[in-house]
Amino acid sequence: MNAAAAVARTHREQWAWIVATLTKRFGDLDIAEEAAADAFATAVEKWPADGVPPNPGAWLTTTATRKAIDRIRREGKRDDKQRESLMLHDDTPPEPTGAIDDERLRLFFTCCHPALAPESRVALTLRMVGGLTVPEIARAFLVRETAMEQRITRAKAKIKANRIPYRVPAAEDLPVRLSGVLAVLFLVFNEGYLATGPGTDPVRRELTGEAIRLTRLIRALMPGDGEVAGLLALMLLTEARHTARVSAGGELVTLTDQDRGAWDTALIAEGHRLVRERLATGEAPGRYQVLAAINAVHTSARDVRDTDWSQIVALYDQLVRLDPSPIVALNRAVAVAELDGPDVALAAVDRLSGKLAGYHAFHATRADLLRRLGRGPEARAAYDQAITLAGNTAETAYLTRRRDQLATR
To answer: Which stretches does the entry tag as region Disordered (predicted)?
Structure first.
């Protein structure tokens, strides 16, 4: 592996661990982030000439630790006694411990603290835990880079000013924190599953993998919570399809056209087991449990023609009662198209135009329904709008091909 590839891989795999380690030691997210970024910049400069070290993660953590100490000395951020303590501390960090590692969970809970605004929690988590750059996060939020930089800076400042602790909450505090934490995990997973921005990979498995890892840890803390189990099942059933989602040419492959033989059967089995366990409790399901059940129906069908669309529509009816959002209504319309026809679905979709005019999936769904109804010029215009708004490279390639096919008919 060449130096550039080694840096990229280590960043994907160990950024969060390095930031978490530095945050634990120095108690300052700003110092931790800057020192980690400086360490990776040093690796980009030195590794091509000196070679990739035997333990890249430890090398980067040691380098970042020294850079953090240099910054503290330079800026006088600690008194003499604290600086002396830092200097006496062994600069050689322990080796990353692997998949289950509480430091990243502590970092995650710090980034998701309820004192922060919801959009700040997601942005900070994507930066600190996910390792996304500020431009990437800005694209995901559809805001300017300067605005996103300010949002993240303010969030870190608030953590420091409010002395938000770097720890996993006590057991009695977890239920209060849970809803916000699960929402952030879901958004982090979605950013990996359908990554935004023209300069990123269409699927970012380091993000989906980290979201699943953290959700497993939350489940270990709260094994009886239905929504934690539901979110984990939803992630597993979605992740199971990742190898079939993008073609060799870099184009999105829709669920209808995916090679189901390429799906990960172990992840599907685990997801189905979680869904069955929740159904067996007889408790009323929450949003994530219903979404998981919808995905369980999809992944139960060996052929798309075997899909039980009536069950999927019934589950969406249940989901609409829990989450009456226009996006849920849009997804329900996709299922209705298979059950009642594209004309019925299009009428439902068009009723959402005032709320989803800026959402690419709204236009992509309309385009597909119009195509199926033989309304080519209208479908082409809808594809154009979807292409303009889509940020995922694989999705853009798919939509472009579908639009161009209309011109040849």
So the answer is: 75-96
Which one has a higher pLDDT value, 347 or 90?
Answer: 347
Whole-number Cα distances in Å, 292 to 183, 238, 262, 280: 15, 9, 20, 15
- Give pLDDT tens digits for 173-201: 888 888 888 988 998 898 888 877 666 67
Longest dimension (CA), the chain: 77
**Quick one: pLDDT at residue 100?**
36
Q: How confident is the model over 88-100, as pLDDT tens digits? A: 454 545 444 433 3
Structure tokens at 270: 């685990």
Residues in Cβ contact with 169 at an 8 Å cutoff, skipping those fewer than 6 apart = 109, 177
Give the other-Cβ count within 10 Å of 259's Cβ. Answer: 10
Q: Output the six-digit token pair for 33.
A: 């982030």
CA distance 268 to 79: 54
Q: How many CB atoms lie within 10 A of CB 151?
A: 22
Residues 94, 97, 101, 107, Cα dihedral to 10°: 40
How far is it, in rounded angstroms, from Cα 22 to Cα 166? 11
Residue written as token pair 């605005």 = 147
Distance in angstroms (rounded) separating the CA atoms of residues 65 and 34: 11
Cβ proximity of 4 and 76 under 8 Å: no
The pTM for the full model equals 0.78
Q: For residue 171, what pLDDT is reported?
A: 76
Half-sphere exposure of 139 toward its Cβ, with a 13 Å CA cutoff? 17
Q: Which long-range contacts (CB under 8 A, 24 or more apart) does 351-355 make?
A: 352/326, 355/326
The four Cα atoms 64, 66, 69, 71 give a dihedral, to 10 degrees, of -70
Cα dihedral 148/184/9/25 (nearest 10): 80
CA distance 318 to 58: 49
Structure tokens of 83? 């600086």
Percent of the chain with pLDDT over 90: 59
